[in-house]
Design a protein that fits this description.
By secondary structure, this protein is of the alpha/beta class. Helix content is 33%, strand content 12%. The structure holds iron/sulfur cluster (2 copies). One iron/sulfur cluster (SF4) binds next to loops.
Length: 362
């Protein structure tokens, strides 16, 4: 499975720093792994500061401070300051629960550049039910207000699935009302907890069609007022997306315990050797670690990708999804209509209206 890289890799632009897996919420679509890192295994402040410096030296421009809930780290201000000192643009991705007005002001003073707040729905009762946390919706609204008052740019992040897809328009209206400059409509990606909850989350094809039409219409209506980013959900697409812009091409993830991954689900692929920032410099990991070189470029591909004209456009889609749905991480992502497994996707997309959520908990 491990193949040597053919040429020197491009420089990464983005770093996803998963500071902790602790989170008060329990979203059933959470992209964190099922096997969550414990607090005792988390990197310390000095190591995160080193990671920020090494990332900047490697060419990274932007760091996304994520989790879990990054606000659960008492040293978040120090990590923000270290990232700012290294010259990185800092984006805080937060569940909006557990960051007080005073804490946000301290983060802004430490150099925070941008805040991304997730919302689960446009209606409080449904939002709190999806998050598995009473009162989360009200606290998210309050934090969004604080972000705008501090004049920090705000993005609202809405993960779409069967329970909220009919209110996608109302969620865009909510983002506008909160003062966001951008809203990300992200359909649930079926890895980790979302794969476990797929039967409960998967919307019907007709619902997806209606949601896409609403988003397109609102993009026109609100042009200039808010940027609306959205992508067609995987299971109903014809071609796959170039997952993370191509394996080991644009970005890297550091997990709470320091493992460096090409994407957040990469650890689900067995047989890959992931290196840790506790033992290696980030540049060495990016350039030489077997896991980063396993699916770089196109030499690892098998048919139909190996001879396909789009192989350097979408890089065969997502390796983790290929593994989850075909058992082979080198296979074409079954989202692609050229994959021999594509026909089975409709069956997998079958939802079960009565399926209960398995909430994400440590
Ligand atoms: S998706 Fe939900 S549970 Fe997962 S880290 Fe974000 S807020 Fe927490
Ligand atoms: S066959 Fe492979 S490279 Fe070609 S479009 Fe499908 S996933 Fe992309």
């Amino acid at each position: 499975m491990v193949a040597p890289a053919q040429e020197s890799p491009p420089r990464p632009l983005g770093l996803l720093a998963e500071l902790t897996h602790r989170c008060p919420l329990g979203c059933p679509y959470c992209s964190n792994p099922l096997d969550l890192d414990a607090r005792a295994d988390e990197l310390d402040t000095a190591t995160w500061a080193r990671v920020m410096r090494e990332a900047a030296a490697l060419g990274v421009l932007q760091v996304h401070l994520s989790g879990g809930e990054p606000g659960a780290r008492r040293d978040l201000e120090h990590i923000v300051a270290a990232a700012r000192e290294a010259g990185l643009y800092t984006n805080l991705i937060t569940a909006g629960v557990g960051i007080s007005t005073a804490r946000l002001a301290a983060l802004a003073a430490a150099g925070l550049d941008h805040v991304q707040v997730s919302i689960q729905d446009s209606e409080a009762a449904s939002a709190d039910c999806i998050a598995g946390y009473d009162g989360a919706f009200a606290r998210k609204r309050a934090l969004a207000g604080d972000v705008v008052r501090l004049k920090l740019p705000l993005t609202v992040n809405a993960v779409i699935h069967r329970a909220n897809i009919e209110r996608v328009g109302a969620m865009i209206d909510l983002a506008l009302a909160l003062g966001a400059g951008r809203v990300e409509i992200a359909h649930a990606q079926y890895y980790g907890w979302a794969l476990k909850n797929r039967a409960a989350l998967m919307p019907a094809r007709e619902q997806v069609g209606r949601a896409i039409a609403v988003v397109e219409a609102m993009r026109e209506t609100h042009r200039g007022a808010i940027v609306i980013d959205s992508v067609v959900p995987d299971y109903y697409a014809r071609y796959p997306k170039p997952c993370v812009g191509g394996w080991g091409r644009r970005s890297l993830n550091v997990t709470p315990s320091g493992v460096v991954l090409p994407c957040h689900a990469a650890a689900t692929i067995p047989g890959l050797d992931f290196w840790n920032v506790r033992e290696y410099a980030l540049a060495d990991i990016w350039t030489s670690s077997p896991a980063f070189n396993a699916f770089r470029g196109t030499d690892w591909m098998v048919e139909p990708c190996a001879s396909c004209a789009r192989r350097s456009v979408d890089f065969g889609g997502c390796r983790c999804q290929a593994l989850a749905l075909t058992g082979d991480a080198r296979a074409a992502d079954p989202v692609c209509h050229l994959s021999p497994h594509h026909a089975g996707l409709a069956e997998l997309a079958r939802s079960d209206a009565d399926a209960a959520y398995v909430y994400r908990r440590i």
